[in-house]
Amino acid sequence: MGTRSLSVDTPDSLYERDLVEGAGKVSRGGGSFKNHESSLVVEQRSSPVRREAVNRSPFAMKSHVNGEIDLEDGKSEKPVDKVIRSNKLMVHNQALLAGLAYCISSCSMILVNKFVLSSYNFKSSMLVYLMQNFISVIIVSTLSFLGIISTEPLTWRLIKVWLPVNVIFVGMLITSMFSLKYINVAMVTVLKNVTNVITAVGEMYLFQKHHDNRVWVALFLMIVSAISGGLTDLSFHAVGYTWQIINCFLTASYSLTLRRVMDTAKQVTRSGNLNEFSMVMLNNTLSLPLGLVLIFLFNEVDYLTTTPLLRLPVFWLIMTLSGFLGLAISFTSMWFLHQTGATTYSLVGSLNKIPLSLAGILLFKVPTSLENSASILFGLVAGVFFARAKMRERP
Predict the structure, then answer these.
(1) I need a surface site. Which of 59, 81, 98, 185 has the fewest CB within 10 A?
(2) CA separation, residue 280 to residues 159, 169, 268 (Å)
(3) How crowded is residue 188: how many other Cβ atoms within 10 Å of its Cβ?
(4) Which residues face 69 on adjacent strands?
(5) What region, left, alpha or beta, does residue 38 occupy, with left being phi > 0 and alpha being psi -120 to 50 degrees?
(6) What is the DSSP string of 3-46?
């Protein structure tokens, strides 16, 4: 949850799962935004005054803010109470703004990628992912140079430790691009639920983490929805589904491997810490040379030298936009998680798939049937049920 998404994925930001499970690290890490470092804001967010401000009626708000007189007892409002309530409303508005920014960026990222690969029929998925990673490196490097964020310097020791994770990261991005080219957005969203199943099984065997019955029921519903969705998909494409299944395994492997490698990576950093911005920098920087090699391996050079799309300014504008959106998911996901918490973040991430799926069907005029639509809806509801089950599972 947290760094470049996943793409995405996002919603999946690509680090979203790890950001949720390590929510405490975000507020303590060096990569947190400077305007969120005040302890006053943290205390305000945990206070019940925020709920009080939300639940007030418009008349009550008007009487306190404009008249500054309590109509029930006629006493003037204390200046301290005014300041506290004003700060609570400000934090509440920041949380709403952060959530809206996260939802917009995560949905837009997938839709823009789908537009580039399908509507333009662009056949170089490698260049798309290279462009996005290159823009992320430029922006993060600039922000780090200006002192707005902090990142760990790239050392050979850190690169050697992180390289296995980066190889999986690149494979995850590429397979996501390939699957999105052949499968509609709604089905990609539903099929990505299979990643949760693989991850849960991996956690059980690798980390001896046991899940309660509600989680397993939700995972079973995800499998059923994925199978029924594939069987009723009017635009079924075997190649696309194959790439998506591979993507699910790679995404789960990335999540599981990241947890082990992060502890080792922290030991070889200068500060002894590895914040989310450093992970963004590591992944995107190391993926650039690997991406250039893959362009030659997949024989995309000939296509890139002949396609007229690269001579269209509008096409490059859209490609650049996709790069900014990829990084925006990382920033907004950390911002939203810092303003709310792991529980709200996880639930909103699941609910966000519903408008994304609907937008994908309508914008790209995907042929669908009642059975397929029901399967998609069933899968999305299963995702929300899974998020709620995971919340209750946490101690």
Answers:
(1) 59
(2) 13, 11, 17
(3) 23
(4) 76
(5) beta
(6) SS-TTT-----TTHHHHHHTHHHHHHSTTS-GGG--HHHHHHHT
DSSP 69: B
Tell me which of 248 and 279 has the higher pLDDT. Answer: 248
Give pLDDT tens digits for 223-276. 999 999 999 998 899 999 999 999 999 999 988 888 788 888 888 988 888 888
Identify the CA nearest to 191 among candidates 237, 144, 130, 260: 237
Please tell me the predicted confidence (pLDDT) of residue 333: 81
Structure tokens at 179: 């699957």
Closest CA to 268 of 155, 151, 144: 155
The three state secondary structure string of 223-257 is: HHHHHHHHHCCCCCCHHHHHHHHHHHHHHHHHHHH
Tell me the one-letter amino acid at 64: H
Beta strands in the chain (DSSP E): none
- List 76's β-bridge partners, or say none: 69
- Token pair 């302890």: residue: 39
Name the residue with tokens 């250039």: 292
Instruction: Give residue 71's pLDDT band: very low, low, confident or very high (50, 70, 90).
Output: very low
Q: Which helix (H) or strand (E) holds 49?
A: helix 49-55
Q: Please report the sign of the dihedral spanned by the C-alpha atoms of residue 249, residue 6, residue 117, residue 379.
A: positive
Q: Which two tokens stand for residue 195?
A: 């990643």
HSE-up of residue 60 (Cα within 13 Å, Cβ side) = 8
User: Rounded mean pLDDT of the chain?
Assistant: 78
Sign of CA dihedral 166, 171, 176, 181: positive
Spatial separation of the C-alpha atoms in residues 185 and 242, rounded to whole Å: 15
* Helix or strand run (H / E) with residue 126: helix 125-145
